[in-house]
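Re: Re: ligand-bound prediction request (bumping)

Still looking for help on this. To restate: I need the protein modeled with adenosine-5'-triphosphate bound, output as structure tokens. Inputs repeated here so nobody has to scroll up.
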Amino acid sequence: MVQPSPYTPGAVARETPGRSRQLAEISERLDMMSATGRLVSRIRVDHGPRGVGKTSLLRQVEQRAHARDAATIWVTAGESAGLVPAIADGAERLVRRWPVKLRERVATALSHLELKVTGGVPGVASIEAAWGKTGGRRARGATREFEDLLVATVEVAQERQFSGLVLLIDEIQAAEPASLRTISYAWQHFQSERRFLPVALFAAGLPESVSVINAAVSNSERFAYRQLKDLPPDAAAVALANPARELGVGWSADAIDAAVRYAAGYPHTVQLIGENAWRHAGFPNPGATIRREHVELAAADVEEDIRELFTARLSKVTRQVELEMVLAMARLGDGPVRRHDIAAAMGKPTDALGVPRGRLIGAGIITDSSHGYLEFTVPGFAAFVREVHDLDDPQG
Ligand SMILES: Nc1ncnc2c1ncn2[C@@H]1O[C@H](COP(=O)(O)OP(=O)(O)OP(=O)(O)O)[C@@H](O)[C@H]1O
Ligand SMILES: [Mg+2]
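Reply:
Sorry for the wait, this slipped through. Here it is.
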């Protein structure tokens, strides 16, 4: 008998150790909503670099919402013409199998939104098409219709004994400004007019979500931004040990230490090293132990995977100034580096970094860390760049 690996590289994590603080804060909001029927008045956005665990966190939120008998709508922004139409579509699908009388209330609200967005052109059934064509410009006046749609959906959900409605939006940085504006105004109106509407919105996205949202909306205080960071060592150890233990397989202490050190807190690497160690241990049966030598063999494989990932990301660096910036950062070291120092190393003023910075963030190569600092998204990226470009290791 062999046991397949319980690790999840490239897929949503089944459990999210290291995220208990985020989930406690979110659960508190969900409790408030479901127990008192009240609006969650701020839109929480957990943002972080690729592979840090945003989607996995948001799926945990979804589970917690279901545990509190809330209905949920999940939307990945950027997948269709607009975020608001995608939410409208989600609402329609949520109520699809409910009794006609309930369904019709949502359908009516939906048709009002459609009419508004399509400019009342008869026969244009899909908001999405209109939204796509005008970039949501017509949506300007559609905030009220969007609100009515949410209200109708929440009310019929309550008739179905749901405690409320939770909207979950992944990849929010890909949302278009018109939708972000519509949503933030809707929340602003709810805040003063409908405090007893049990609805909540939780979002996740790349670091640029913050600037994308702030550029689109004028009332950015409706949003609560939280940075999602790498896992602390304890959480990475739990992420490795727990799935194995559930299958009756142990990790030796030095194997766990080596794997945790290797992954350096990056969730994607945690799963990769776990999966490969599992394989090198021969898809262990209950009672077996994963040992240090398995981790060492695994590290060699993961190294290859990660180098491929780095190579793929670096291949997106096409402009000279971007490459210069990557090299300057790699020379400066492995952790966060000051923008000021990067600019100085490039012999440029700090504000000349704006454009390349934006593009490198978009390519998943660097990310904002604390204020005025930038860093590579994945541990080991700086060292890889130094190796490929034959740069000296940073002093100190
Ligand atoms: N708390 C966690 N502990 C251990 N592994 C995790 C944790 N969260 C996520 N992972 C794993 O890390 C990898 C990336 O997770 P996920 O897809 O949720 O990240 P993401 O931030 O949404 O990535 P992307 O930006 O590419 O969408 C997956 O392999 C997932 O199984
Ligand atoms: Mg994701």
